[in-house]
Amino acid sequence: MNAIPWDEVQLFLSLNRTRRLSLTGDALGCDTSTVSRRLVRLEERLDVALFDRTREGLVPTTAARTLLPAAEEMERASHRFTRELDGFEREAEGDVRLSVPPGVAESFLAPLLGPLHARHPRLRFIIDASVRQADLTKREADLAIRTIKPTGGPLVRQLLTRARWVPLATPELVASLGRVDDWNDLKWIAFGAGLEHLHVAKWLSSRVTVVPVLRTNSFQLQVNAVQQGLGVMIAPEPYAPVLKLVPLQLSRKLTADVKTLPVDELWLVTHEALRKVPSVAATWDFIVQALK
């Protein structure tokens, strides 16, 4: 048997409660003859008599009394469905959880939060700015910014930008160094233990034999040290104007070598089930407009 349409269950419930065709017609917005025809069709569909017709009104049969609890449970489920729908987010509001690499979070995402919140004042932000990548398929975050294109899973992805890593320092240090002919002539600020696998860390270790003046897993600490004139770091080129740093003046040989530095992509990612949720959609659209 095919599923019984909900409107037929509503008819059955109303007839159980009113015991009158006319009263059920008033409740459902149709005339008595229509109610009668619908009842006959329902009984034929179920192949069972639901009500005995008497001069005093309708009397539920044993079958009707048996079916009534299930029909009432369907009604309660319908009410719960309606309540959930009424409470569903229709405006950009509530928490938005973002997983963002360090550096990108501080230098590019943080400046966006003020304007984004001004546009959508009911949004709140929870940001995981760590090297650990939250699993979007397990809903550990609503949105993520990734430097590698995610593959697999029910994810929506959008490329924001591509950027090459370059050696950067303060304008004052770059001026004092002049043209650099050898990577070993520089005081390097490098990634610390545990991050040797990074493409840029491998690039640096394959070319530099001097011990870095600073090694740290904190990108922000690298930035602070370079801004204080301690040495040179390698960072994606878009960081230069944000951090008030400039590229080094390099010999022709080293200029060619810089072109072998990695090129990173920046991807915005979310679970496909969340893409149109207002809070996620508003944050997504704002980030795309600002960073792309």
Layout of strands and helices, then pairs:
Blueprint: H1 6-18, H2 21-28, H3 32-46, E1 51-54, E2 57-60, H4 62-87, E3 94-99, H5 104-119, E4 123-128, E5 143-146, E6 155-169, H6 171-177, E7 179-180, E8 189-191, H7 199-205, E9 214-216, H8 219-227, E10 233-236, H9 239-243, E11 246-247, E12 249-250, H10 252-258, E13 263-271, H11 278-291
Could you characterize the architecture of this molecule?
- The structure is a single chain.
- This protein is of the alpha/beta class and 292 residues long.
- The chain has two domains: 6-87, Arc Repressor Mutant, subunit A; 92-292, D-Maltodextrin-Binding Protein, domain 2.
- The chain has eleven helices and 13 strands.
- The protein has helices at 6-18, 21-28, 32-46, 62-87, 104-119, 171-177, 199-205, 219-227, 239-243, 252-258, 278-291, and strands at 51-54, 57-60, 94-99, 123-128, 143-146, 155-169, 179-180, 189-191, 214-216, 233-236, 246-247, 249-250, 263-271.
- Strands 3, 4, 5, 6, 10, 11 and 13 form a seven-stranded mixed beta sheet that branches. Strands 1-2 form a two-stranded antiparallel sheet.
- Strand 3 (94-99), helix 5 and strand 4 form a beta-alpha-beta unit.
- Helix 1 crosses helix 2 (21-28) and helix 5 crosses helix 11 (278-291).
- The two termini are 54 Å apart.
Class inferred from helices and paired strands: alpha/beta
CATH architecture of the largest domain: 3-Layer(aba) Sandwich
CATH class of the largest domain reads Alpha Beta
Q: What gross morphology would you assign?
A: rod-shaped
Low-confidence stretches: none
Number of domains: 2
Residue share in β-strands: 15-25%
Report the major sheet.
7 strands, mixed
> What is the CATH topology descriptor of the largest domain?
D-Maltodextrin-Binding Protein, domain 2
Instruction: From the alpha carbons, calculate the radius of gyration and give it in angstroms.
Output: 33 Å
**Count of helical segments?**
11
List the secondary-structure elements in sequence, H or E: HHHEEHEHEEEHEEHEHEHEEHEH
Task: Give the helix proportion (percent range).
Answer: 40-55%
